[in-house]
Design brief:
182 residues
């Protein structure tokens, strides 16, 4: 019901066929004569967010400026021409932005490995990102690196539902106990 609050900082209201956009960026920016591998990474996605309290202290205008600032950071780092989308989601608990980047190297190759990099390069990305947003007036603490592993969405939802069921069962048993006492 809140989907109307979402917006794309690159395309605005325009409906976009992202597959076509990706192919266009590849055809315009990849200079290799080699055929693109079937298993090549065509888009690397970044998730830009913070905690709910950070966003609750921002006006909608300041929130949009925050996301524009972060999009500009990624555009400068990976090339404006390689950004496919920068979609802000306000229809979920915490506002966040998905940014899609076609991983084209400076010498015109399609290589997520070289563009996005390894663990140490991702740590540096987060350090640089934090310095960038602080320089633009956003007092964010640098995220803490962890060894946590990504959980697939379906599994995460199942785990969350199971936890909710356990809480509901405990509440039911407490209520039943109170009723019996009365």
């Amino acid at each position: 019901e809140d989907m109307h609050l979402n917006y794309d900082l690159i395309h605005g209201e325009k409906q976009v066929d992202y597959k076509k956009e990706i192919q266009q960026v590849i055809s315009e920016n990849v200079k290799s004569d080699k055929k693109i591998r079937k298993d090549a990474v065509l888009v690397s996605e970044f998730l830009i967010t913070s905690d709910t309290s950070f966003f609750s202290n921002l006006s909608p205008t300041e929130q949009k400026r925050y996301f524009e600032t972060t999009k500009d950071f990624l555009a400068k780092r990976y090339g404006e021409q390689n950004l496919i989308y920068a979609t802000v989601h306000n229809d979920e608990k915490t506002p966040h932005m998905h940014v899609g980047v076609v991983p084209v190297t400076e010498d015109g190759r399609l290589s997520a490995k070289d563009v996005v990099g390894n663990r140490m390069q991702l740590v540096k990305l987060q350090d640089d990102f934090n310095a960038h947003v602080k320089a633009h007036g956003y007092d964010l603490a640098r995220g803490i690196s962890s060894k946590r592993k990504h959980v697939e969405m379906a599994k995460f939802k199942a785990m969350t539902a199971q936890e909710a069921e356990q809480v509901a069962t405990q509440n039911y048993e407490q209520t039943l106990s109170q009723i019996q006492t009365i």
